[in-house]
Design a protein that fits this description.
The chain is mainly α. It has 25 helices and three strands. The relative contact order is 0.15. About 0% of the residues have low confidence.
C-alpha cells in the first residue's frame, strides 16, 4: 500500500469511529426498551420517545453542525461529539428515572448529529476522487460495526444475567442488564476522543480559512506520487473564490434555481433512507422477532444476525461502490427493500393466533391463567385482534409484560420466512442506500455551501428517522405488523422509480467537476 493511501485510510478509519459510536448508540436501545417499558411502566409512545429522543436532538444538532464545523473546524466538532457520547453513556446507565434516561439520551443525540454529518464530510474532503467512495463508506461501515457490536453485547449481557458465576452476580447483570447495555459505550467514546488527536485538519477547510501552508502539507501527505499537490490545491482555491463566506451563507442560498436538482436529490434520498423502515429494524429488532413468536432469548440472538448481515453487505457495498457506481447499487438495494417488506407484510397477514390449553399451561406462573379461559381455543386472524383479547382478559399491564410469551404460545407463522425477510431487507439497505446516501451527500453539493447543504438534508433525514422511531411501537399496536411493513415496501418501490429517472451517476469525478456538471448558474 502506498504511503499516501495508508495515510488516508488510517485517517478515515479514525474519523469514522464516530460512526461506530452512532451505530452502537442507536442499536443498543433495541435491547433496552423491553426492560425499561416494564421497569418504568411506559406506554408504547413513551417507549418510542425513549428511542427517538436521541434522534430528535441529533436532528437539531445537524442544523448547526455543518456551519459550526465551517467556523471552528471539522476535527474540533468531532472532539466535542466524543465528549457528549461519554456523558450520555454514563448518564443513561445510572439514570434513576425515565425522565433522566431521556435527558441522557438527548445529550448523546447532539454527538450523534455532529458526527453523522461531519465525519463523512471530513473524509470526502481529504480523499482523492478514486478513493472517495470507499473512504466515505468507512463511516457507514463503522456504523454497522457499532450496530453489530451493540446487538452482540445486548445478548451477552442478557445471558450473563442468567449466569451462576459469582462475578456476574456481583456485577448485577440480571438486575442492571439494561444499564450495563447502555454504559458500555463509555469506552469507545474515550478512545475516539484520543484518536482524533492523530488526524490532521481538513485541507479544504484550511484553504477556506486561508491557512494554505498547512493545507499544502496535508495535501502532499494525502497525494500519490506524480500528483501535483499544488495544482490540486489551486483547484480548491479557485472553487472557493468566495473565501470564508460559507459560514455566513443564509439558508436561502440552498433554494436558488441552480441548486434545484442537487437539493431535490439530496432531500428525496435522505427521506427514502429512513421512510423505508431501517431504524425500525435496528432500534426494535428484538421486538419485531418477538412478534413471530420465537421468544425473548431467540429474538436477541436473531438480532445478532441482523448486525452481521448489515456488516457483510456494507463491506460488499464498499468494494463495489467505486466499480459499479452509486446508481446501480441504489436500484438493486431499493428493489430488494420493497420485495422483502412485501414478504414480511404477507407473512404477518397470513399468521393465525390460537391459544391452546397446553400453551396456557406452559406460560409463566405469574400470569392469571384462569382469566384466559374465555380465549383458549379461539382463533384470531390478526395480531391486533389477539393482543386486544389478551389485554381484555389480563389487563394492559400484564398483557404488555408477557406479550412475548403470549404471542409465542399462540401464533402460527413461518418464523424462518420472517427472519429471511428481515435479513434480506437489511442486506438490501446495507448494499445500497445505507452507505451510498452519505457518499452522494458528500459529492452533490458545491464547496461553497457543502457544510450548510449537508446539514440541511441531514436534518431532514434525521427528522424522518425520529418520526419512524417514535411511531413504530404505536404502529405495531395500532396498525399491526402486516400493514406497517406494507407501507415501508411501498416507499421502497417509489424510491426505485425516483433513482431510475432522476439520480445521476457521480463516481470517478472530483468534487469540483461535479459542481460544474450538476450546479448551473442562474
Amino acid at each position: 500500500m502506498k504511503s499516501s493511501t495508508f495515510y488516508i485510510v488510517t485517517t478515515a478509519l479514525i474519523v469514522a469511529l464516530g460512526g461506530f459510536l452512532m451505530g452502537f448508540d442507536a442499536s443498543v436501545i433495541s435491547g433496552v426498551n423491553k426492560f425499561i417499558e416494564i421497569e418504568f411502566g411506559l406506554t408504547k409512545l413513551q417507549v418510542g420517545w425513549s428511542v427517538s429522543s436521541l434522534t430528535l436532538t441529533a436532528t437539531l444538532a445537524m442544523l448547526a453542525a455543518g456551519p459550526l464545523s465551517d467556523a471552528i473546524g471539522r476535527r474540533r466538532v468531532l472532539k466535542f461529539a466524543a465528549v457528549l457520547y461519554a456523558i450520555s453513556a454514563i448518564g443513561s446507565a445510572i439514570a434513576p428515572s425515565y425522565t433522566m434516561l431521556v435527558i441522557a439520551r438527548m445529550i448523546g443525540g447532539v454527538g450523534v448529529g455532529a458526527s453523522l454529518i461531519i465525519a463523512p464530510m471530513y473524509i470526502a474532503e481529504i480523499s482523492p476522487p478514486q478513493l472517495r467512495g470507499r473512504m466515505v463508506s468507512f463511516n457507514q461501515l463503522n456504523i454497522v460495526i457499532g450496530i453489530s457490536v451493540a446487538f452482540f453485547t445486548n445478548y451477552l449481557i442478557l445471558q450473563l444475567g442468567k449466569s451462576d458465576a459469582s462475578w456476574a452476580q456481583s456485577l448485577k447483570f440480571d438486575e442492571w442488564n439494561w444499564r450495563w447495555m447502555l454504559g458500555l459505550e463509555t469506552l469507545p467514546a474515550v478512545l475516539y476522543f484520543l484518536g482524533l488527536y492523530f488526524v490532521p485538519r481538513s485541507p479544504r477547510w484550511l484553504v477556506m480559512k486561508g491557512e494554505f501552508d498547512e493545507a499544502m502539507m496535508v495535501m502532499k501527505r494525502a497525494s500519490d506520487e506524480g500528483v501535483d499537490a499544488e495544482a490540486e490545491l489551486e483547484k480548491i482555491r479557485n472553487a472557493m473564490e468566495v473565501g470564508d463566506q460559507t459560514s455566513k451563507l443564509p439558508l436561502s442560498e440552498l433554494f436558488k434555481k441552480s441548486m434545484a436538482l442537487v437539493l431535490t436529490i439530496g432531500v428525496v434520498v435522505g427521506v427514502l433512507q429512513q421512510i423505508t423502515g431501517i431504524n425500525s429494524v435496528f432500534f426494535y429488532a428484538p421486538m419485531i422477532f418477538e412478534q413471530s413468536g420465537v421468544g425473548t432469548d431467540a429474538s436477541f440472538s436473531q438480532a445478532i444476525y441482523v448486525g452481521l448481515t448489515n456488516l457483510v453487505f456494507t463491506l460488499i457495498a464498499i468494494a463495489l461502490i467505486d466499480k459499479l457506481g452509486r446508481k446501480p447499487l441504489l436500484l438493486i438495494g431499493l428493489a430488494g427493500i420493497a420485495i422483502c417488506m412485501f414478504v414480511l407484510a404477507y407473512s404477518f397477514n397470513t399468521a393465525e393466533y390460537q391459544l391452546a390449553e397446553t400453551a396456557v399451561a406452559s406460560l409463566p406462573a405469574d400470569i392469571n391463567k384462569e382469566a384466559l379461559a374465555d380465549v383458549v381455543g379461539v382463533s384470531f386472524g390478526s395480531d391486533l385482534e389477539y393482543k386486544a383479547a389478551m389485554q381484555e382478559a389480563l389487563g394492559a399491564a400484564d398483557a404488555g409484560t408477557y406479550e412475548s410469551e403470549l404471542v409465542s404460545g399462540a401464533i402460527t407463522i413461518n418464523p424462518m420466512l420472517v427472519l429471511i425477510g428481515i435479513l434480506g431487507f437489511v442486506a438490501s439497505f446495507a448494499i445500497s442506500i445505507g452507505p451510498v446516501m452519505w457518499v452522494l451527500f458528500s459529492e452533490l453539493f458545491p464547496n461553497a455551501v457543502r457544510g450548510l447543504a449537508i446539514s440541511f438534508v441531514g436534518l431532514i433525514n434525521s427528522g424522518v428517522s425520529f418520526l419512524v422511531q417514535l411511531v413504530f411501537p404505536w404502529e405495531l399496536a395500532t396498525l399491526g405488523a402486516s400493514t406497517t411493513f406494507l407501507i415501508y415496501g411501498v416507499f421502497g418501490l417509489i424510491g426505485v422509480f425516483f433513482v431510475l429517472f432522476i439520480v445521476p451517476e457521480t463516481k470517478g469525478k472530483s468534487l469540483e467537476e461535479l459542481e460544474a456538471i450538476l450546479v448551473k448558474e442562474d
